[in-house]
Amino acid sequence: MDAITRTRIFNEYEKIYVGILSNMYPAKNSTGFPERNLSVNFAKAYERISQSKGNAAYTWYEFQFGTENNLHVDAVIVNPAEQELLIIESKRYSNPTSKMKEVGEDIERIQSFLSEIEAENRNGIIRINATDYKKAYGVILADVWTETLLKGEICDSYLNGMLEPDSPKAFLNKYRDGLGIEFVPTGVNYFASNLSEIEDTKKYNLVSFMWELK
Fold it and tell me: What is the model's pTM?
């Protein structure tokens, strides 16, 4: 995926949120927004940009895997024309310390999912034919309300990642210990956007990163 397409997708993702939240406020009190909406709205954005290029993309939510079929990733997008596979997990930084650990688990889950799909292919099981997709990406979608110091720092770490992904101030580097992972993805692309133009969401931020799995 080239940088221009990636930027178009995340800009469309932000545009979808602005459209929704300009016309409704779907939460009550301070309960926040269910994380499934992150996956759904990102998939909409990806599919729209794909369609604008004359290509079709397909999304499935809660795609199952695991030896006992007891695991899932939040969403999988396949784009046959572009030969792209995206594996998505979504997270709300409602409790930053515990959620960062879950992000680390999500990174590992995404990698395990692709490994299992490839192993299935070798055994003649074709749920997704991994050889059809030259590029596979892991995507972690998240949102954060900058209402505490730590949440503000998390948002800043994504902004720093946009400017310099390898910086020690970028999210994956700054919070590596909290993520609890040995392997930190490389070639990471960050995205951060504040929905400040909407009165009720001045402290609401979409923060995400993606990286190449192959």
Answer: 0.95
